[in-house]
Amino acid sequence: MSDKRIIVAIDGPAGAGKSTLAKRVAHKLGFLFINTGAMYRAVALWALRLNVALSDMHRLEQLAQSARIELGLGDGRVLLNGEDVTDEIRETHVAEAASQVSAVPGVRRALLSMQRQMAERNSVVMEGRDIGSVVFPHAQVKIFLDADPIERARRRALELAQDGHDANVEDIAGELTQRDLRDRNRKEAPLVQAPDAQLVDTTGLSLEEVEEIVLRLVRARTSNGKAVAN
Fold first, then answer.
1. Distance (Å, rounded) from C-alpha 71 to C-alpha 22?
2. What pLDDT digit, counting tens, does each position of 175-219 carry?
3. Sequence spans of domains, the chain
4. Which fold has domain 7-227?
5. pLDDT digits (tens, 9 = 90+) for 131-161
6. CB–CB of 170/220 below 8 Å?
């Protein structure tokens, strides 16, 4: 890793606010924002469109290897094979499918390679489930973002409502619980807090407050674009 290239890894369970926070922090720092969850959702969407069984690990791996996924710089748009799928991958059924797709070892290997390539020439803020533990275990800044389960469900319900979808907090809480169980218990790169990651509990905090906490952590580890020597 280049001394001038900084990796900020933000991990955490579904609904913790990783994407919104990571996007804002990347903008403030002038870094590339990489939403790994969107990448898994894109593969899941493609599988759903092609009626590929989510249990067909070989076919899902093939899709992940051949998918052309592009992440927009600064605008958060997601392109799948040249098509803008930003809004479609936010649908609840796609998110549910993505949780299953992300448990496939071959899919994770394919996207991990893609993620590392994206970060080869840029300082990045990358969010997901295994960034600090697997994708970039030597990241200079590691943050594990979490929140009370009900708080996470409320946030997700609000997002869906803003997008014009019906959202029941209790139903979403149940879905998030199932996703948490899958993510934490999968054999390939389970959701865990890396030993050297800073836990940030966002329960009861505003987005601005969480952003400032994270920026302070980043600044504590960086100086003039270079990682601070230990």
1. 14
2. 888 888 888 888 777 888 999 999 999 999 999 999 999 999 999
3. 7-227
4. Rossmann fold (3.40.50)
5. 999 999 999 999 999 999 889 998 888 877 7
6. no
